[in-house]
Amino acid sequence: MSEMNINDAVMTTRLDAVVNWARKNSLWPMPFGTACCAIEFMSVMASKYDMSRFGAEAMRFSPRQSDMMMVLGTVTNKMAPVIRTIYAQMAEPKWVLSVGVCASSGGMYRTYATLQGIDRVVPVDVYVPGCPPRPESMLYGVMKLQEKIEKESLSMRKDHIGRFYESLARQDAWQAEKGLTGQQTIREMLMDAAGRGEGAIF
Ligand code: SF4
Question: 46 C-alpha vs ligand 1 centroid, how far in Å?
Answer without folding.
Answer: 20
